[in-house]
């Protein structure tokens, strides 16, 4: 694997680390399987790309992308809670609707960001090669967001959110307004995914309406890979695991595509993804059952 | 003070399965009173607790906790007034969260939750102190997940959680029923100690007539959704389990099915 391919994979892994954080929040902390991300990722990309190419400040555009993602997440949680619709189904409805919304936002299937100022532009001037600047910038951003997320989840409010997902009856008995926490939690989750979409558009130079397909699988894969590598029990470990898992996942895919003996091509990506997720799901269980029988 | 006025609860109203779980129950508990509730299965004990906690909606009547009418409030809105310990040790705390985090959740029961750290210094110190008093060595292991503890440990911690924050009433729903005798004894003694120390107003549901006479200051017997027996003070002191059974027979004119109501 060449250095450029390696850092490219790291870069993509760090972009999707935000997706992993969002998925961790919905699937693991709130126990709310949310597929909205397949729509909120391209939504974030679309909003950021359209605003940036319209001349707005890239940071403000990124913030707007996060708000758009939050709104999408809120819609899913609201539909699910208010109308008592299964969370999976509610999220699929939002996801499908977002496809049309994203086309409306962009006015066409894709928007290019070539020669536009992005959040990365000032950092390119530091003289480091672009393919190194991007992952470095993303790493710093991921670290900041993770630290904020950990602090939030350790606060009274964040703890109430975790209790909501872990034991809703107990949470209610402690005076936690469970419905509100699900809505704000899923909104926060999709805000992170919207941020990932915005960063994807800015690091890759385009937003595409089809960019969201399989986002949930990638996010979930990252969470699961992270869980297999990190010790259980501590929140901070789990958060770091999400980031690590996302990067490792991208590296594994890059490696698989680069091994000529395998004869794989780029279009085999989804198949490899599915097999990789399956492997990370099954392998720990095999190890456990062998230990149990020993 | 707790005032329950002609409280009625009906399950499956308007269907062939309609059941009147509570029939115009009226009950006043003075502040600091510790009442034990006994009754056979289906007598309405758990329904009474559920109605007080806000899990079960009242069909009729009024529930007033510390002067506040909470009849229409959902469970989470009256949590500031109601502390609870569930029968199932797994129900009252989050297995995935640490002991300390569970404690912190309870310390903020019914209050506005903000962005300050849940385990901030002064709260953590208070939690460590309260857990140390249990004398089971958990104060140095607050970072352990709640799920790694035994049922007895969890119920003891649940009692501490229920008393971390002030309440108008503490509801104990057969909180020792899932424990082995030694642990049940430990948790019951702890209950009595905490009730005494914090002058708690307690409503404790139990299956055991023995417990209902030995603990607390008042004994209530529920049958078929009504309070059929209510005794406190001098009259309660010399009361035996046999007396209770006798009392039950006279009021109801029927044999008490002893398999359903533990005599011991």
TrEMBL record, chain A:
Gene Ontology CC, one term: plasma membrane
Keyword Disulfide bond appears in the UniProt entry: no
Membrane topology annotation: Multi-pass membrane protein
InterPro entries assigned to the protein according to its UniProt record, in alphabetical order: ABC_transp_permease
UniProt keyword NAD, yes or no: no
Gene Ontology molecular function: transmembrane transporter activity
Compartments, as annotated in UniProt: Cell membrane
Keywords: Cell membrane, Membrane, Transmembrane, Transmembrane helix
Protein name per its UniProtKB record: Putative ABC transport system permease protein
Origin species: Faunimonas pinastri
UniProtKB/TrEMBL annotation, chain B:
Membrane topology: Peripheral membrane protein
Keywords noted in UniProt: ATP-binding, Cell membrane, Membrane, Nucleotide-binding, Transport
Annotated Gene3D superfamilies: P-loop containing nucleotide triphosphate hydrolases
Start and end residues of each ABC transporter domain: 2-249
Family: Belongs to the ABC transporter superfamily.
Locations listed in the record: Cell membrane
SUPFAM superfamilies linked: P-loop containing nucleoside triphosphate hydrolases
Cellular component GO terms, alphabetical: plasma membrane
Transmembrane feature ranges: none
Main localization category: membrane
Protein name per the record: Putative ABC transport system ATP-binding protein
GO molecular function: ATP binding; ATP hydrolysis activity
Cleavable signal peptide: none
Pfam families for this protein: ABC_tran
Record carries keyword Transport: yes
């Amino acid at each position: 694997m060449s250095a450029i391919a390696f850092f490219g994979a790291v870069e993509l892994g760090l972009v999707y680390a935000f997706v992993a954080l969002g998925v961790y929040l919905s699937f693991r902390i709130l126990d709310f399987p949310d597929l909205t991300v397949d729509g909120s990722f391209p939504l974030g990309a679309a909003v950021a790309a359209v605003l940036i190419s319209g001349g707005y400040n890239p940071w403000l555009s990124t913030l707007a992308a996060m708000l758009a993602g939050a709104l999408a997440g809120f819609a899913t949680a609201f539909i699910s809670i208010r109308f008592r619709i299964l969370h999976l189904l509610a999220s699929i409805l939002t996801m499908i609707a977002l496809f049309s919304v994203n086309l409306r936002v962009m006015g066409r299937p894709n928007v290019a960001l070539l020669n536009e100022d992005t959040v990365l532009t000032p950092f390119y001037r530091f003289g480091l090669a672009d393919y190194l600047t991007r992952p470095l910038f993303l790493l710093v951003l991921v670290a900041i967001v993770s630290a904020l997320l950990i602090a939030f989840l350790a606060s009274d409010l964040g703890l109430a959110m975790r209790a909501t997902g872990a034991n809703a009856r107990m949470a209610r008995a402690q005076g936690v307004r469970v419905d509100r926490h699900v809505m704000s939690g899923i909104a926060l989750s999709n805000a992170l995914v919207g941020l990932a979409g915005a960063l994807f558009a800015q690091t890759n130079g385009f937003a595409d309406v089809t960019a969201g397909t399989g986002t949930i699988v990638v996010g979930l894969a990252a969470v699961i890979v992270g869980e297999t590598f990190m010790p259980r029990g501590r929140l901070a470990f789990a958060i770091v695991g999400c980031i690590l898992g996302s990067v490792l996942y991208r590296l594994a895919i890059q490696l698989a595509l680069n091994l000529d003996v395998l004869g794989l091509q780029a279009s085999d990506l989804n198949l490899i993804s599915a097999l990789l997720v399956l492997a990370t799901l099954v392998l720990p269980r095999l190890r456990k059952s062998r230990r149990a029988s020993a | 003070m707790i005032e329950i006025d002609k409280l009625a609860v009906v399950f499956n109203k308007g269907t062939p399965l309609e059941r009147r779980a509570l029939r115009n129950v009226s009950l006043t508990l003075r502040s600091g009173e510790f009442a034990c509730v006994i009754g056979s299965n289906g007598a309405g004990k758990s329904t009474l607790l559920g109605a007080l906690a806000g899990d079960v909606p009242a069909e009729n009547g009024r529930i007033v906790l510390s002067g506040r009418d909470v009849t229409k409030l959902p469970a989470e809105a009256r949590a500031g007034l109601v502390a609870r310990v569930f029968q199932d040790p797994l129900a009252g705390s989050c297995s995935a969260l640490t002991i300390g985090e569970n404690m912190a959740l309870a310390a903020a029961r019914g209050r506005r939750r903000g962005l300050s750290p849940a385990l901030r210094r002064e709260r953590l110190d208070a939690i460590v102190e309260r857990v140390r008093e249990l004398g089971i060595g958990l104060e140095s292991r607050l970072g352990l997940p709640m799920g790694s503890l035994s049922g007895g440990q969890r119920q003891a911690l649940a009692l501490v959680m229920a008393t971390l924050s002030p309440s108008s009433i503490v509801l104990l729903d057969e909180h020792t029923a899932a424990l082995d005798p030694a642990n049940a004894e430990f948790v019951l003694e702890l209950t009595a100690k905490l009730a005494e120390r914090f002058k708690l107003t307690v409503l404790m549901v139990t299956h055991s007539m023995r417990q209902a006479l030995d603990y607390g200051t008042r004994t209530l017997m529920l049958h078929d959704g009504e309070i059929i027996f209510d005794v406190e003070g001098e009259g309660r002191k010399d009361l035996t389990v046999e007396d209770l059974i006798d009392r039950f027979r006279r009021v109801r004119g029927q044999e008490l099915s002893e398999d359903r109501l533990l005599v011991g």
